[in-house]
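Why do we care about 3D structure at all? Because function follows from shape, and shape follows, mostly, from sequence. That is the central idea of this module. The next example makes it concrete: a single protein chain, its amino acid sequence, and then its structure expressed as C-alpha cells.
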Amino acid sequence: MYSDRFGCYLRAKAKQPAESDWIWEGHADGFIAECSSASGEVVNISAIWMPGNPMSPAIAAREAVAQLTFTAPAVGFGPAPEINPWGITVVGYPYWLWADGGSTQTITDSVSAGGLTVALRVRLDRVAWNTGDGTAEFSCGIGTRWTRSVEPGAASPTCGHVFTEASQPGHYTVTATTPWVVEWSAGGATGTIPIELSSTSEVEVGELQTVRRR
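And the structure:
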C-alpha cells in the first residue's frame, strides 16, 4: 500500500525481526514494514511498525504465488525439419506438438506471506496452441513427444497440426500458452488466481514440388 506520510509503498518485511527487537516499539501485535519504490526497490529509510494485519488474504495469496517458480514449457515440435533432406517443415505432413519440459505438474504447497499461511494448489488448465498460419487457436493436454520410432506420416494421438500453406519467404511463429489456475485459502478466505505462461518457436514451412521428366 502507498503511504503519503512516508512517500513510499509499505510492504511487510519478508523476515520479521525478533520480538525483542527495538523496532517493535514495545508492541506485541502488528508487523514491521519497509519502504519501497513502485519498482519494488527498498528505499533508504528505517523499518516501520504498522498496526493490524500486513495485508489481506487475497494480497497475501498473490505474494505467496510470487514465491513459487513457474517455467513455461518449450514448444515441442516433431519430426524436426533438420532430419529430412530439405531442412524445412513440409506442407501436408502431420506434425506432433507437445509441451517440452517446464512446469506441467500440479503443485500443492503452503507458503508464508504477509503474516498469513497461504495454502496453494496450482494446476495446469490446458496447453493452447497458435500455429501462426491463420489456423484458429486450439487446445490439447501436454501432448505426446515425437520419437524416431514413430511410423513416418503417422499423426499424433493427442496433439498435432498439418500446415496447408508455405511460409516462404519467412516463417510461422508457433506459440504454446499454458494457462494455470491457482486455488488458494488463507485467513478463512478462498479464491483463485489465473497465471499464463507462453513460449514460441519459429518454423519455416515449404511446399515440395514434383518434377516430371520426359
